[in-house]
């Protein structure tokens, strides 16, 4: 039994005449009669009573017609649902973000824009450190991520720069370097020599951690790290408690801790904390490809929509 046999049967059941059913199906009447007879032989019972002017479904034929309508309706629904998934209009995407990336307005603005456009795509936002995000992406548990500067870039993952953000120094309120006049000129890195530093653990923010340490060494000193924390927000809290100083991306000034002061670094010793988009180069999830496409278009200043999903994301 083939799908076309069911469509032929339903047309005859609804038209109650082979000639009209054949015209509706754009086939000749004799082949249609033969197909219905073959279907009855396969089922082992009559579907129609033949009348002088047309046909009448048998009780079994009436029941079969009702079920066939439902089956064809479900099949049509399945096709349309699968097509929407293939276009990236339906499904689910796991989006990873580091805690500092989530403080920048760009990532969440873009996720919100995507949700407004594709409201049938479920977004699961997961906040992890960079090492955890990359590990989960490598095994497919996260499809798209926004993080700072990764060092580990495994095969199969692509990284695109989105936005370059400066690092700022976080000082406890009343610190000698927290005076407003210093804030206007910026703090030189060498002014931080001898301070106690609270920094994110190296696996949590490997790229910007390494860049900051290298910048300090270039300024002539080795920073004294007295404590490492899993998240930058935890570092700000420890600064507020008087346990040291730290450096964070400028957007983390939105954190709202009132017992600390944020100061810019002097231009000559400025350290950056770039945002990157990470995605799987051979992503099978069409919704994830749509989100990736939208983020890249917005980050690169392209006002157009996400368009059709590109089957080759690595070429974007």
UniProtKB/TrEMBL annotation:
<dbReference type="InterPro" id="IPR036388">
    <property type="entry name" value="WH-like_DNA-bd_sf"/>
</dbReference>
<dbReference type="Pfam" id="PF03466">
    <property type="entry name" value="LysR_substrate"/>
</dbReference>
<keyword id="KW-0804">Transcription</keyword>
<feature type="domain" description="HTH lysR-type">
    <location>
        <begin position="1"/>
        <end position="58"/>
    </location>
</feature>
<dbReference type="InterPro" id="IPR036390">
    <property type="entry name" value="WH_DNA-bd_sf"/>
</dbReference>
<dbReference type="GO" id="GO:0003677">
    <property type="term" value="F:DNA binding"/>
</dbReference>
<dbReference type="InterPro" id="IPR005119">
    <property type="entry name" value="LysR_subst-bd"/>
</dbReference>
<dbReference type="GO" id="GO:0003700">
    <property type="term" value="F:DNA-binding transcription factor activity"/>
</dbReference>
<comment type="similarity">
    <text>Belongs to the LysR transcriptional regulatory family.</text>
</comment>
<keyword id="KW-0805">Transcription regulation</keyword>
<dbReference type="InterPro" id="IPR000847">
    <property type="entry name" value="LysR_HTH_N"/>
</dbReference>
<dbReference type="InterPro" id="IPR037410">
    <property type="entry name" value="BudR_PBP2"/>
</dbReference>
<keyword id="KW-0238">DNA-binding</keyword>
<dbReference type="Pfam" id="PF00126">
    <property type="entry name" value="HTH_1"/>
</dbReference>
<dbReference type="GO" id="GO:0032993">
    <property type="term" value="C:protein-DNA complex"/>
</dbReference>
<protein>
    <submittedName>
        <fullName>LysR family transcriptional regulator</fullName>
    </submittedName>
</protein>
